[in-house]
Every structure is written in structure tokens, then in C-alpha cells.
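Q: I'm building a small set of examples for a reading group on sequence design. Run inverse folding on the following structure and report the sequence directly after it, with nothing in between.
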């Protein structure tokens, strides 16, 4: 809604969420889907709420009702990660935890698609447990890859034995690779990127044929399914994020030929036969090819990508539009419709189409404009661009992860140090209130003192002949700088 500019509806939905959402319910929920849709959606809305005109509370973005809801939802998922391997169960009961008879078999994507949301949550709340479990799950998959560097489709989270050994880039695996790249970018994490690049080598060696990607046996590399799945169409966009634009465009053009053949991407497409696979002829208005077009257009400005966007709009409008929405295409061969519209059509497909044709959208910000907000930890830059989309197309502002990096107890410790420091300065007037009372954890000082910090610049000052405080772990000035500002005597 914010991306499309509908701020009034954004504000209304925020109020509805605050009034009516309760996670203490006896419901079995997909750990994967709850994370990408609920946790990811709430985190994204939380970070965009100020931009959308929602009145935010003191301490935002390090606090807020939507952030607390996201944290509550994520905590409901944590019992799923309590396995010998650290890989989560696929389903959890929101009230009782993991059911005793729950199957231990989970798909690879259901294990490796948490780092974006959970790391964001850890950085905003100061609780490392979320990022820790997400990383442990990622590394467990990495540890259990085959000797030729591939992962299968489903694994037993108790024993780490692969149950389905088909390796590819599509359904059941896809967002694991996506989150290695996006997690690496979001967190500036070389280890995650290194893991993906190693996988990428194996994928090219064993699954890539003429710019198509097939399914192979994870231990031998022999072809098991010579098909293209529509879910694989995210891959060119992912390639663009690591700078492999030429390969991305060649693969994208292969996928685009399938779109032009049917007016959409069938769920399965037999590559040697050049036709749909039996019982997999439908197109539920998935976003992946359009997502790749959006990323690649930002990288290349190739007009072919806009042509795909135009074709997508025309196809969906002509084939799928019905009185109450846009229906899933049950069979692309004759364009019969199903009586349903998937939620990802609005959450992802429409959003990526809109962004493809809206070069001036704030999502595409190149950093030339930004907002500065005051947090309990000092000044923070937000909305400067570089947004990371989770796999349900909810944008996360990476800058926000640097706004709330210190724990609350460290904040109070630093403020106590500041009090002691200024209590020794007899000729200065100084009062300080905690962030919970004052709003930004700022100091309130004489105008002449405040002017010495104008513009947030760092200045040199004369060193005192004696140390006012003893801070063995780090220098006094560094200790104060935890709040984002350094208060120095400026004589």
C-alpha cells in the first residue's frame, strides 16, 4: 500500500492490526509461511509506518506496536527450531508448540528462509535468539550438502538424512539460495555470500544446460527431471544481485519465450518437449518472472524487460480479470480459470509490476535523499534506498538494522556515565532524562554546549590532565559514543 502511495489505507490497516490480532490461538501454522508473510509483513510495515504518516512512538524504529507483534509471532515459531540439528520443523502450533506427532521431514526452503526476517528482528529488538536460530539452520544445510556441493529437496530435521534427493533451484529449495544472497547483502556477511557462490558453482556444473536449469540427483549429478518450474524464474533476478547480469539475461530470455508461448508460465514446462507437463498446466499469477524483470531492468535498462511487463499486464487483464478480482489460470492451454486468487498476486506480482514501471518510486532511491531520525541510541539514517525484499516481497530497510544495535542496559550504563561526567563539571548546567521519559535519549544542555555539536560533526578537544572516569573495556569517549553522539568539553 505504501509503495502504491495509498497511505490512508495503510494507516487504516495498521489500526485494524493493533486492535484485532491475537497469536495465542490453537492453530497449526506453517513455520515458513508465518515467517515470510506475518513476521516479514509486520517488520516491513513497522519500518515504513513513519513514512506512511503513522504516528510512531518514542524510540521508533527500535520499538513500536508492529515490531512487538512481529516479535510475538516470531517467538511462536521458536519451538520449531528445538531439534538436534537446529533445522526447524515445518509446522508449529501457535499455542502448544510442536505437536508430538509432527513429521520431521521439511523442505530445504522451509529451513533456510529465515535470516532476513529473524536478523532484522534481532537487530531491532536487541535479542540475538532470532538471528542465532536462523544462522544455525542455514549452516546445518550447508554442513549436509553432498560431496559435489548440492542440496536436496527435503530433509529429516532430526537425523539430517535427505529424504528427497532431487537438487535444483526451484520448488522446495528456491528461497534458501535467495536468502543466502539477500542475507549477505542485508548483513554485509561474507560467509553467507561465500556459501552461495560455492553453491552457484555446483549449480552451474551439474544443473545448467543451455541457460536452462534442470533437476539432478544431489549425489551423482545425473538428470532426474528435465523440467523448468515457474518458481525458478526468480533466478535471473538473484543473479543480477550478485552482478552476473549476462547469464541472468540469457536465462530470463529463455523463460520469456515460455511466457510468450502460453501467455503465462505453466507450473512445469518440459524443456526437451517444449510443452507443459500433465497436471501442471496452470498459472496462479506467480510473480517470479516479473520480479526478475524488475531487478534486471534496474541493472540494464533493457527495453525487452519492459516488454515483458507490458505482456504480463495485458495477459493478466485479458485472461484473468473477473468481477471480484483476478483468477488463477487453471490451464494455460485453453485459459480456463479457477475460482481463487492467491494472496501473492497482490503482495508480489502487482507490486513488482508497479515497481517495474515506476522508476521514481521511493524503493528505487539511490541514496540521494534520506531521513534522519533520533533513536535512544542517537541519530539514525533511514529510507536511503537499498531495500531488501523478503521472499514475499516485503521490503526491509537495511539501514534500520544499524539504529538499535545496543542493548537497553548498555544505554542506561552510558547515560549513567554521562551523568557522572557532567556532575563533575561545576560550571556547566546539564540535565538528562532517560529515553523512556524524554524521547530520544538526548541530553538537554545550555545553548552554547548544544552549538558545539551542531551538524553532528566530530571535533577535537584538549585532553584533560586527569582521567575523570575509569572505563577499562574501552575509552571514555567511545563509551559515550554508543549513543551516537560524543559529548566533549570544548574550551
Amino acid at each position: 500500500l505504501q509503495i502504491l502511495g495509498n497511505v490512508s489505507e495503510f494507516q487504516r490497516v495498521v489500526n485494524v492490526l493493533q486492535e484485532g490480532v491475537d497469536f495465542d490461538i490453537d492453530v497449526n501454522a506453517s513455520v515458513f509461511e508465518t515467517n515470510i508473510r506475518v513476521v516479514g509483513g509486520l517488520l516491513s510495515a513497522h519500518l515504513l509506518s513513519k513514512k506512511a504518516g503513522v504516528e510512531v512512538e518514542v524510540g521508533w524504529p527500535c520499538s513500536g506496536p508492529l515490531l512487538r507483534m512481529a516479535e510475538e509471532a516470531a517467538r511462536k515459531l521458536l519451538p520449531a527450531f528445538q531439534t538436534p540439528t537446529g533445522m526447524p520443523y515445518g509446522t508449529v502450533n501457535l499455542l502448544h508448540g510442536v505437536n508430538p506427532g509432527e513429521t520431521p521431514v521439511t523442505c530445504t526452503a522451509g529451513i533456510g528462509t529465515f535470516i532476513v526476517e529473524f536478523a532484522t528482528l534481532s537487530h531491532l529488538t536487541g535479542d540475538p535468539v532470532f538471528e542465532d536460530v536462523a544462522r544455525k539452520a542455514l549452516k546445518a544445510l550447508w554442513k549436509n550438502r553432498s560431496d559435489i556441493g548440492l542440496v536436496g529437496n527435503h530433509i529429516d530435521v532430526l537425523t539430517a538424512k535427505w529424504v528427497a534427493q532431487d537438487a535444483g533451484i526451484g520448488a522446495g529449495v528456491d528461497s534458501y539460495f535467495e536468502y543466502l544472497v539477500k542475507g549477505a547483502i542485508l548483513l554485509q556477511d561474507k560467509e553467507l555470500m561465500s556459501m552461495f557462490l560455492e553453491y552457484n558453482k555446483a549449480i552451474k556444473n551439474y544443473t545448467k544446460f543451455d541457460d536452462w536449469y534442470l533437476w539432478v540427483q544431489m549425489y551423482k549429478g545425473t538428470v532426474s527431471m528435465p523440467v523448468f518450474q515457474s518458481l525458478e524464474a526468480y533466478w535471473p533476478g538473484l543473479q543480477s544481485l550478485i552482478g552476473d547480469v549476462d547469464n541472468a539475461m540469457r536465462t530470463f530470455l529463455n523463460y520469456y519465450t515460455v511466457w510468450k508461448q502460453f501467455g503465462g508460465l505453466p507450473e512445469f514446462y518440459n524443456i526437451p518437449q517444449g510443452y507443459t507437463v500433465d497436471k501442471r498446466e496452470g498459472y496462479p499469477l506467480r510473480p517470479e518472472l516479473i520480479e526478475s524483470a524488475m531487478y534486471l531492468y534496474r541493472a540494464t535498462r533493457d527495453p525487452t524487460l519492459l516488454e515483458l511487463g507490458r505482456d504480463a499486464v495485458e495477459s493478466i487483464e485479458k485472461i484473468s480479470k473477473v468481477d471480484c478480482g483476478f483468477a488463477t489460470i487453471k490451464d494455460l492451454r485453453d485459459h480456463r480459470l479457477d475460482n481463487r486468487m492467491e494472496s501473492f498476486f497482490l503482495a508480489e506480482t502487482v507490486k513488482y509490476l508497479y515497481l517495474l514501471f515506476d522508476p521514481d518510486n521511493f524503493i528505487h532511491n539511490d541514496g540521494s535523499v534520506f531521513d534522519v531520525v533520533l533513536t535512544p541510541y542517537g541519530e539514525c539514517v533511514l529510507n536511503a534506498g537499498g531495500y531488501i525484499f523478503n521472499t514475499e516481497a516485503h521490503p526491509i530497510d537495511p539501514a534500520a538494522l544499524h539504529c538499535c544495535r545496543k542493548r537497553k542496559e548498555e544505554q542506561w550504563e552510558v547515560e549513567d556515565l554521562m551523568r557522572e561526567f557532567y556532575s563533575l563539571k561545576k560550571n556547566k548546567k546539564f540535565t538528562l532524562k532517560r529515553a523512556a521519559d524524554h524521547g530520544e535519549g538526548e541530553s538537554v544542555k545550555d545553548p552554547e554546549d548544544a552549538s558545539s555539536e551542531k551538524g553532528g560533526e566530530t571535533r577535537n578537544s584538549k585532553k584533560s590532565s586527569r582521567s575523570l572516569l575509569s572505563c577499562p573495556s574501552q575509552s571514555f569517549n567511545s563509551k559515550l559514543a554508543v549513543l551516537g553522539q560524543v559529548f566533549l568539553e570544548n574550551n
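The chain has 17 helices and 23 strands.
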